[in-house]
Design a protein that fits this description.
The structure holds three protein chains of three kinds. Chain A is an all-alpha fold. Chain A contains three helices and no strands. Classes of the chains: A mainly alpha, B mainly alpha, C mainly alpha.
């Protein structure tokens, strides 16, 4: 029979990323929203590996799990932490 | 109450996705997913990426993605480097005129445990980034991958030690700008090198050329002593890694300046306008 | 009954569309500039994933990444490689798109810092009221 384990893992990673994206958009504490965005990027990196794209994995992991949350935390420290308040 | 609402919404969105996928499968999309045969263009790229019997059409690099990025579609990459350059210049223009020079002493930065761990890890990060960039034509990797990984090291040093430590070492914003310009000069020279060699020898050539092509019988060697070096791809990868890593270092140094130093510049600018 | 491989693959495609819709809601409906930046990065990443999914293919037992591993290759090696490797062109284009997205996001971060320094808030409703 054909190997279906990669496809099951692909479907689980995609459904998990829906949960992470919803939590990142809804959250009012911006620090937690940046952390949920990093979780979504990790699940996307797993999805890129299963889709046989190793070049993209090597670009995406330092950019979206390393640089984006670090720059966002710098930004939150310099401006406001909670959205919706003055 | 809010928590139950969020759980209900998430589970209904997931149920919608699963059921809509089932409806799409049963209804039929017109062709089979995932497809069995790739496109004709993909077959051409895959069969000519390293083909010693088709020497005139081949790019002589076993890694198809790096060959497409720097050889088949090299002009796209040159324009993308320009867009990154414009973004960096615009960011430097926003944060102009800020002076911050203080000597570094031991009390700045985080605790001694963090500093010792960072001293051990930073050479590993730079070494792995160099390995990824130099092997770009044989294994997955290349200039951007190596440059983005190498840009994590100055970020770590900026957070654990402080921005004054980097000034003390000598890595200021202007020196990082010089490094970036050196990398971009490397990219520019490599895209013209076969053209200049052909002009001297009297042949016909194209810009961004790597191997001999139908109307121009000159190119860079693709193997040296039995090792595959991929012609211009190696020079492109090295220059691009230097340019990308230095470019991100500039932006991180500008981001890490404390806010007290900036307030003087902004208030003095406001007074001169008001 | 449907083929299980086709069904699982279609779940991945549908969840990418759902992610794009959620990120669009985040850009348009949330009032903080930082939340808008986070949602913009999610939108760009989901669109890139959709482009890579277009380049996938189905092979028995499993496809291979577009890297040739037998050097020097003979004719049958190259024909075997063409019959199991995925499409390399969408991956090259997505590489460019990731770097451009990173450059634009970094510039947006600097603009947001400057807006906070000059106006004291990052709430778009309050900034819209400041005119005049």
């Amino acid at each position: 029979m054909t190997y279906i384990l990669p496809y099951i893992l692909m479907a689980l990673a995609a459904l998990g990323s829906i949960v992470a994206v919803y939590l990142a958009i809804i959250e009012k504490d911006l620090l937690k929203a940046a952390l949920f965005s990093a979780i979504q990027s990790t699940l996307y990196a797993l999805l890129y590996y299963l889709l046989m794209a190793p070049d993209i994995v090597l670009t995406y992991i330092p950019v979206a799990v390393g640089l984006y949350p670090a720059v966002l935390i710098f930004l939150i420290k310099k401006t406001e932490r909670y959205e919706g308040e003055s | 109450m809010r928590r139950i609402l969020h759980v209900v919404i998430i589970s209904s969105v997931i149920a919608f996705t699963v059921l809509a996928a089932y409806a799409l499968c049963v209804g039929g999309l017109g062709y089979e997913l995932p497809p069995i045969e790739p496109r004709t263009l993909a077959k051409i790229y895959l069969s000519t990426t390293f083909n010693p019997s088709l020497r005139i059409l081949s790019a002589m690099a076993p890694e198809a993605v790096t060959a497409i990025v720097w050889d088949y579609r090299g002009l796209d990459t040159v324009f993308e480097t320009t867009v990154l350059y414009l973004a960096i210049i615009a960011s430097i223009a926003i944060m102009r005129g800020i002076e911050h020079h203080e000597p570094y002493d031991e009390k700045k930065g985080m605790s001694i445990i963090g500093k010792t761990a960072t001293k051990i890890i930073v050479p590993f990060i730079v070494g792995v980034a160099g390995a990824i960039a130099l092997h770009g034509h044989l294994t997955p990797g290349g200039g951007f991958q190596g440059g983005a990984t190498a840009a994590v090291a100055p970020l770590l040093v900026l957070v654990i030690f402080s921005v004054y430590f980097l000034e003390g070492i000598g890595l200021t914003k202007n020196r990082a700008l010089v490094l970036r310009s050196t990398g971009l000069l490397g990219v520019g020279i490599t895209s013209f090198i076969v053209f200049m060699i052909a002009l001297i020898k009297g042949f016909n050539a194209f810009i961004l050329q790597n191997q001999p092509k139908p109307y121009s019988p000159i190119g860079l060697p693709y193997a040296f002593n039995g090792n595959i070096i991929g012609g211009t791809l190696l020079l492109f990868n090295i220059s691009e890694m230097l340019a990308v890593a230095a470019g991100f270092t500039i932006l991180f140094i500008l981001l890490a300046i404390p806010e007290e130093k900036v307030k003087k510049v902004i208030s003095s600018q406001g007074e001169s306008h008001g | 009954m449907v083929n299980i491989v086709v069904y699982l693959f279609t779940i991945v495609i549908m969840s990418m569309f759902v992610n794009i819709a959620l990120a669009l809601y985040g850009i348009l409906a949330r009032p903080s500039l930082i939340k808008k930046i986070i949602a913009l990065t999610i939108l760009g990443d989901s669109a890139n994933t959709l482009a890579i999914i277009v380049g996938y293919r189905f092979a028995e037992p499993y496809p291979s990444p577009p890297v040739l591993t037998k050097l020097p290759p003979s004719k049958s090696d190259i024909q075997n490689f063409v019959s199991v490797a995925v499409d390399p062109l969408p991956q090259a284009l997505v590489l460019t798109a990731i770097v451009i997205g990173l450059a634009v996001t970094l510039f947006l971060v600097f603009l947001t810092i400057q807006v906070y320094r000059l106006y004291g808030t990052t709430d778009v409703r309050k900034i819209a009221k400041l005119r005049g």
